[in-house]
Amino acid sequence: MNRETTLKKLRKKSKTWDVVIIGGGATGLGCAVDAASRGYKTLLLEQEDFSKGTSSRSTKLVHGGVRYLQQGDISLVLEALNERGLMFKNAPHLVSNQSFVIPTYDWWGGPFYTIGLKMYDLMAGKLGFGSSKHLSREEAMKALPTVEQEGLRGGVIYQDGQFDDSRMAISLAQTAADYGASVINYCKVTNLIKEGELVSGVVAIDQETDEEFTIKSKTVINATGVFSNEIIKMDEPDGNDIVVPSQGVHLVLSKDFLSSEYAIMVPNTPDGRVMFAVPWHNHVVVGTTDTLMENHSLEPVALDEEIDFLLETAGRYLVKPPTRMDILSVFAGLRPLAKPNEGDKETKEISRGHKIMISVSGLITIIGGKWTTYRKMAEDVIEKAILLGGLPDRECVTKHLPIHGFTMNADPHTDPLASYGIDKEKMLALGEEDKKLSGFLSEKLQIYKSQVTWAVRNEMARTVEDILARRTRALFLDARESLRIAPDVAVIMAKELGKTRRWRLKQLAAYEEVAKNYFME
Ligand SMILES: Cc1cc2nc3c(=O)[nH]c(=O)nc-3n(C[C@H](O)[C@H](O)[C@H](O)COP(=O)(O)OP(=O)(O)OC[C@H]3O[C@@H](n4cnc5c(N)ncnc54)[C@H](O)[C@@H]3O)c2cc1C
Asked: Are 332 and 248 part of one and the same domain?
């Protein structure tokens, strides 16, 4: 995870990589871990920061997908439940068990969901997270003291997983680097290079210095999510669009709105979607929506109607209906959905399974999928790369590969620093070595000053936003509090990176511009 070392490698014109991956979200990082752990010369290029795209904006669930079961997508649920179990085994410092309650208000809801969730339990097999159970009205009220009690008949409790998406992304980048991959952020692919008709590498530009690199590779993987169409066009200028963005919005509220360790799952909102209210880092995350968008962006903005929908729906299930003033942070993410044909299904019905496409020139593109299935997606992609690039055939080893920081002694439910795993003590020790780094940056959000220096030294953090949005989750938990601590972050970073006052001011202005879309005026 050293940017300078990777830049030096990129300057070596004679070097040919086995695998070059474009995109540092869940999909690309998974591919980097898979390829590097099989021993291939692997390079990952991310145009901004790791998980800056969709992969830091999920509902934070590691799940089989109860909704996909409802839709009858059995193979996707089976695959996701298996991956959920593997993710928990390989990264117990990042993934934890979360109990969900479905409150039921109809006579048929209890038996219907109890049977469905028993199937869900059975499908998880040996990798199950615990069994589901029917709850009486009293038990449901005890589990969810804030849930609307009028008309409540009971509930069903079931188990799924939860994680911190951007911290998982950083740990994957570190795992790939541990196995010899070169990973770099702020390095954008601007073109593909070809030998004859075949893709033989990429052109990339360091976004910090504008230095350009011509990079040769036996295989090139397009893992750019909602940006996939742009890479496809570099390959085939007249090629058809293959993805459409569908926006999902989340609201973050104070934990008092749930005041329970159980999450709420609403399987059928008035417009036929699923809604979650999930405890996360001492707050509650409510989401999500599914809005087909015309355009994509790295900073999608929640629409007013999406916020209203979530407030209104959440209000039906919480005794105290949240208002705009209660929103501590609102974030939007874009699902890279396979483009439906004219007259096809609605976005909420498009399968969340993944799809791998190989162009005539040999460019491998992967779209769709879920965070939960990132490992299997990567395995499938690298299998294709082996064939296309004529790479020596080596078995995938990620099923039982511990993710960087692995330890069984960290509980993400109770410890806000659990995601650092075995690195936690080393990170905190920075505060003991240097008094300026001791103590909290934000006591409210339990963020320490030493996390900033650690992230610059070990996690390739380059900007104030990297720290506040993805190395810590300040922006996603409480946007105003993140703005309050931004100047302190800039000071610590400037010292570590040897930057000037001008850099600090520019960073703060850029951060304010991003953060203003995360809170309500
Ligand atoms: C609202 C919402 C909620 C979700 N909740 C869950 C959930 O709870 N659980 C779950 O399992 N899944 C969930 N998902 C799905 C999951 O988040 C996505 O499937 C996953 O994050 C997609 O990752 P990706 O790597 O394909 O895309 P991205 O994370 O978008 O990564 C693509 C990356 O490519 C980079 N890139 C683009 N162009 C270039 C270029 N030219 N050069 C270099 N880099 C480039 C981008 O900057 C970006 O970082 C959710 C999705 C959404 C939208």
From this structure: yes
